[in-house]
Write a structure and sequence with these properties.
Length: 57
């Protein structure tokens, strides 16, 4: 699965994340998680943390 910037993905831990930067395609990404701008957090995730792409941008 190819991940693109601003795709919305479901993580294996159940959280939903928006990809904000591709560090290395197929390996590592920066993603925003949280329900609203009040509690968004930018985290680094691995490709293996992603269960599926929910919405493509």
């Amino acid at each position: 699965m190819e991940i693109k910037e601003f795709n919305v993905v479901k993580l294996k831990d159940g959280r939903t994340a928006t990809i904000v930067d591709i560090l290395e395609q197929g390996i590592a990404y920066m993603a925003d998680v949280g329900d609203s701008p009040k509690d968004w957090e930018t985290i680094s995730i691995k490709h293996s943390d992603i269960e599926e792409v929910i919405k493509e941008h």
